[in-house]
Specification:
Chains B, D: It is found in: Cell membrane. The complex is a heteropentamer, with two copies of chain A (355 residues), two copies of chain B (223 residues) and one copy of chain C (267 residues). With 355 residues, chain A is an alpha/beta fold. Helices cover 36% and strands 30% of the residues of chain A. In chain A, α4 packs across α5 (147-159). Classes of the chains: A alpha/beta (355), B mainly alpha (223), C alpha/beta (267). The complex binds adenosine-5'-triphosphate (ATP) (2 copies) and magnesium ion (MG) (2 copies).
């Protein structure tokens, strides 16, 4: 077995309905390691769904080779392809539940035709329904469920065959935070305990941060950036990635909101509104805390979105600094190599944001 | 009573027999044509472009064949397939012999209806099944036929009612039935009461089919 | 085995035979009466009557042996059938009756009164159509081509001095559309069912003579059964006095009894 | 040629006329029955339970009426509605007169098909239209008929082909047409070449309808 | 006109299909002010969608009265009801776009039958498409769009009639952060400039925080808590609200993640891992910053999710404190009235979380 459970080589997908020609995926090369949790992120229409549909050949690529688990899927006979597909569970953006089957029936479906006793099938499906918190709904039909409930059924269904790879196309988009957290924890557990490789499309950075090891950023059908999550977050290279990281951390919205309530003109002479950016501050010592003591400045945090990725602090903070501002700022600038960047928020910045 | 339906009263046993004949023709040809039509309809759906077993040549042949069979007027169908009827049933006249032309008269129609019904099954669900490694056969039985069941029942109702209409023409080969009574006795002899009563019985059959079908649709629908 | 069966069959049929008669319309009624009659029992015949409303199918079924004897067709129809189906030939057993075809109208009371450009409804079934055309020729309304045969059609009209227009219809609808056309040709079976009396209600009708002999109805069977005694008995049975009395009463004498040997047609 | 189709060659003009008659009957009755069937089908959909104008009594009446009309064998329908035919067309025989029974013979069937087709229109979209304050009429025309168009065309194909089959029976009232030639000349006179050629022409018509319909479906579908 | 544009009185909705009886909404009373942005939040299946469908009578309530714009909707004649519905734009969870119309056609749809020239209709629809960033897709059919693109079309469609009320049922669930932010900004602008009242269902706390003025929390068909957003966030009363606030801020996940990389046992004797909770710290002075200077402790922020709601700092922070821990903690405890709460994260807390 190759160490890459999924290998996409030179994949392009072109839709050609009538006159319009859409290059949904262009020249994508992607290797996903066995046991990885690989996030794919990108704006709407970037080609994420199309790309993952190529992984189990639901979407035949226009060009390129798809290798899963060492098998080049395009060369397989239909029966072998079906067998290969069973190793790849898929959770769809639009649920795709069968209306004619109960919740339990939907989860059991992938097991039909396999040599498992009816009792075992039911037990297995029920266990998964319990996992997603829908055990009480086993005998309900999908149309009676709310959107979130439907998605959880779809997740249970994708897991019931113990797939080696699990593809999730915005599986948590329709879920509330609690259910999302529960599902992500579940995915993480499956990954850790059973070694299931997970490919996860999402538009929620939080989801990527929470559980992904690697991430690829897509734009216009291409992967424009990829790597370990921490690296991509801390040192985004492509403009879109930066954009993504910034927008997702809500810094801009926060600055706008803060400058609406706290007028910059009302700040005292020894006060400044400063945006901090932490990218990969590796020490266990707090830089800001140290400096604030050193320069006797007061740091009042108005907004913070700081998190740890692979043991590194990453995130943003907006604070009002009161005291020896000049010295403080100079000291912070000197510590840039420790991953702290600052930016003064003045009228100009505020004006730039509102455009 | 006697004044209202003078002729009918003298024909009680004929009416009973004719009703049984109609039931017999309808039931048996419905079952056989049901299987054939379902098969052909499913084949049309799976072989058509973007179908799960997309196959242009097969689809073209099946599609044309369906139209071909649908183009033949029933009375000519009777004649054209009488060798087959003779081979299968041993005779070309009588109620049982009528089953063969009835089946051929209705199953291509049913196939078309089945095709239209199955086209409405959500492609997303078919795709989900494919992603789970379901074989084409599994997709046909566990997805198409199961998800499409309410629609299939609806088109089956339409078809059975059309079939009841078709049995009224089977008198041409001595199959009897209510239509034959209505036409060759009631209509031809101006015994309007006979026509009326035969029609009412047919109507009752039609209603029973419709009501039973509607009930079934309700039972199997979950939306 | 074959011989044993054959002999036992012959023996049995000598005493008692079961015959399936295929028929339609008024013939069906007549034969149902005959089946129940005393005469049939006396002759040792058990008759089963089957209604088959399509003539072609009925002839085919007779040739195949699904029906033993059929009673519905005229001599001309029978001849046409045999000409077109040399592999499945039928044989005539004997004559039954002549039903005069009539020309009926609700608008005029005589042939002379039929106006110029009138619409005449005529059967779309070829044997009835040719018979109707012959009748119209006899009435002096049209002139047909010299070689007009049993399957002659509207194309064979040589002269049409009154510029008659023809509408081909299913022959059973005749009585129903009588009001919508100037005149309609209706065979007697259909006329009877429509409560039309050919001798009384028609403005012109066939009479029984050499020229109409091809219209005489016959009993027919598969060619190989031509000489089967029990089948031939049906002809005799049909002409029994009691039965004729019934037919005369029921059909007001519009079914003219014809009891002629088959050689009569070849004269 | 002459050896293969001896009788047909002598009947060229009859064939042309019969083809025109069949086209005439099919086209006109399709248009009229189309309007009636569409109307009835739409009424069935909107008045049914949970429909946008849900009305139990109306639905029950319309539903039963549809079945009633569908139960009448065509040949009897000819007779039953002949007073109406006479009133509308002035005569009960001929090609134009046949339009009335043809329309009545096919429109209830079409209504059922329309109903089945429109049932597949996404309820969510209907609901969205309701939320935008669309009137029932607007929902019928701008949602049901527009969203259901591909399915409507599909059932229309099925119906027109059935209608072509039905025209073959209109010979009974002197409507002529290809079916009449096939049956009353080809079949009844044993001129098999006539039957064959008539059938082939019918077949061509059926194929034209199917191909045109399929093309239309493709044109109006966006999925 | 009443000051409440929407008034729901004693609303209950019971679904009664076959034997099962679902009380989707129970005894809900809800008044929404004209010009408000009212958020409705709750876990999946809480009855949110059902409740908002009652507002324009798409869902007839089993009991209760619905008053919109002073009109009691249940008493209206059909034509009047339709007129009233035009005042309420709705964005659906499942888009509900017409497959037979182009993107432009979909947006134009609500204007059909109104006395507007074709040109104006198109212009208006195009302007909205530009607003949602889909002007290039005007002639595309919906099935060619990605999920996010579809949702944006639905939003444009809901806005095209200039409704007084806009109901959005998880309209941004399927959108990436950038598009979400753009849409929310758009909603906010509509609200501010045109006075459109907005009812917004979401499961993203961030959305509520960003633009809502009021929020109602639903559980099992009932509204269990409601009020101004700041109040509900800073002083959640119902357990579910607390749960919601906590889960949505990702504190738990953060603690789990942090305690996986930083072993508690490896901390020095003068170090402690502490979770801070800020609720409504009104001063412009930073409490933590002050105290850290006072007690010379070093505060290394590992996680922070702090934001301002109505000028008050609200949020969570996890930090390693190094130095005079005892004094620092005691001082913080004394400042509880200033809205700072702390909790020591020890082995016991970690164990409790992983259950
Ligand atoms: N069947 C199709 N025919 C034509 N174009 C298509 C088809 N499917 C997708 N596209 C186009 O391909 C592009 C990529 O679509 P895709 O669904 O992969 O995007 P996505 O990244 O998943 O977006 P989202 O986050 O909104 O789901 C889009 O521009 C879309 O319009
Ligand atoms: N038509 C229906 N028939 C029966 N039960 C229904 C129906 N619609 C919804 N329900 C039930 O009512 C409850 C509330 O559903 P609703 O869709 O309002 O939830 P929701 O809060 O919008 O959830 P989500 O966030 O997942 O969309 C659920 O338990 C659901 O199963
Ligand atoms: Mg997608
Ligand atoms: Mg919902």
């Amino acid at each position: 077995m190759s160490e890459h459970i999924i290998e996409l080589a030179d994949i392009s997908v072109t839709f050609n309905d009538g006159q319009q020609k859409v290059n949904a995926v262009q020249d994508v090369n992607l290797q996903i390691d066995t046991g990885d949790i690989y996030g794919i992120i990108g704006y709407s229409g970037a080609g994420k769904s199309t790309l993952v549909r190529v992984i189990n050949l639901l979407q035949m690529p226009t060009t390129g080779r798809v290798t899963v688990n060492g098998q080049q899927l395009q060369t397989l006979a239909p029966a072998a392809l079906r067998q290969a597909r069973k190793q790849v569970g898929m959770i769809f953006q639009h649920f795709n539940l069968m209306q004619s089957r109960t919740v339990l029936g939907n989860v059991i479906y992938p097991l039909l035709g396999q040599k498992i006793s009816k009792r075992d099938r039911q037990a297995k499906a029920l266990a998964l329904l319990k996992l997603v918190g829908l055990a009480d709904y086993a005998d309900t039909y999908p149309n009676k469920l709310s959107g979130g409930q439907k998605q959880r059924v779809a997740i249970a269904r994708a897991l019931v065959t113990d797939p080696q790879v699990l593809i999730s196309d915005e599986a948590t988009s329709a879920l509330d935070p609690k259910t999302t957290a529960a599902i992500l924890a579940l995915l993480q557990r499956l990954n850790r305990e059973l070694g299931v490789t997970i490919v996860l499309i999402t538009h929620e950075m939080q989801v990527i941060k929470s559980i992904c090891h690697h991430v690829a950023v897509m734009e216009n059908g291409r992967i424009v950036e990829r790597g370990p999550v921490a690296q991509v977050f801390t040192a985004p290279k492509a403009p879109i990635t930066l954009d993504f990281v910034e927008t997702s951390t809500n810094v801009r919205a926060a600055i706008q909101r803060i400058t609406r309530t706290i007028k910059l003109s009302e700040l005292a002479a020894n006060q400044e509104l400063i945006a901090f950016k932490f990218i990969g501050q590796a020490t266990k010592k707090g830089v800001i805390s140290q400096l604030s003591q050193e320069f006797k400045v007061d740091v009042n945090i108005l907004f913070a979105n700081i998190d740890q990725i692979d043991g590194q602090n990453v995130g943003d903070m907006i604070a009002i600094i009161t005291g020896d501002i000049t010295g403080f700022n100079a000291a912070v600038a000197r510590r840039a190599d420790q991953g702290v960047h600052t930016r003064l928020i003045d009228e100009q910045v505020v004006k730039g944001l509102s455009d | 009573m006697a004044a209202l339906i003078p002729n009918v009263l003298q024909m009680k046993s004929e009416f009973i027999q004719a009703t049984l004949e109609t039931l017999y023709m309808t039931a048996f040809s419905a079952i056989i044509a049901g299987v054939l039509g379902l098969g052909l309809g499913v084949l049309l759906v799976v072989t058509q472009p973007h179908g799960i077993l997309a196959d242009q040549p097969s689809y073209q042949i099946l599609d044309k064949l369906t139209n071909l069979l649908r183009s033949v007027p029933f009375i000519i169908l009777l004649a054209v397939i009488s060798p087959l009827t003779s081979y299968l049933v041993g005779t070309t006249v009588g109620t049982t012999a009528s089953l063969v032309p009835l089946v051929f008269g209705i199953f291509p129609f049913y196939a078309r209806q089945v095709q239209n019904a199955l086209l409405d099954v959500d492609q997303g669900i078919v795709e989900a099944a494919q992603s789970m490694g379901s074989s084409p056969l599994a997709i046909i039985f566990r997805v198409y036929l199961k998800e499409g069941l309410p629609d299939l029942i609806r088109v089956s109702i339409v078809t059975v009612i059309s079939l009841i209409g078709l049995t009224t023409m089977a008198g041409a080969i001595g199959a009897g039935g209510l239509g034959d009574i209505a036409i060759s006795i009631g209509y031809a002899r101006f015994e309007n009461d006979v026509t009326l009563v035969a029609m009412v019985i047919i109507l009752v059959l039609v209603f029973v089919v419709q009501i039973f079908g509607d009930w079934l649709v309700k039972r199997v629908s979950h939306d | 085995v074959g011989i044993h069966e054959l002999t036992s069959y012959t023996v049995q049929s000598a005493q008692h035979a079961t015959i399936t008669v295929g028929s339609m319309g008024s013939d069906y009624d007549i034969w149902q009466h005959i089946a129940k009659s005393q005469d049939a029992k006396a002759m040792g015949l058990t008759i089963k009557v089957k209604q088959i409303t399509d003539g072609v199918q009925l002839n085919k079924a007779t040739a195949d042996g699904d029906v033993d004897v059929n009673a519905f067709e005229s001599w001309s129809y029978y001849e046409t059938y045999n000409r077109q189906n040399p592999k499945e030939k039928l044989a005539a057993l004997g004559t039954t009756y002549l039903e005069p075809m009539g020309l009926y109208s609700k608008k005029v009371t005589s042939v002379e009164a039929i106006p110029d450009g009138a619409t005449i409804a005529i059967a779309d079934n070829p044997s009835q159509a040719s018979r109707g055309l012959l009748l119209l020729q006899k009435a002096g309304l049209i002139k047909l081509s010299a070689n007009f045969g049993a399957l002659g059609s509207l194309k064979d009209i040589k002269r049409n001095p009154r510029h008659l227009k023809f509408k081909q219809i299913d022959d059973t609808t005749g009585p129903r559309i009588i009001k919508n056309v100037d005149a309609v040709l209706i065979s007697n079976t259909v006329a009877l069912e429509g409560h039309l009396h050919v001798l009384r209600d028609s403005i012109y009708h066939e009479s029984f003579n050499k020229s109409t002999k091809a219209n005489v109805n016959i009993l027919a069977t598969a060619a190989k059964n031509k000489h089967r005694a029990s089948y031939l008995k049906l002809v005799k049975l049909y002409h029994k006095a009691d039965i004729q009395k019934y037919i005369k009463q029921k059909y007001y004498g519009t079914k003219i009894n014809v009891n002629k040997p088959l050689s009569y047609f070849n004269d």
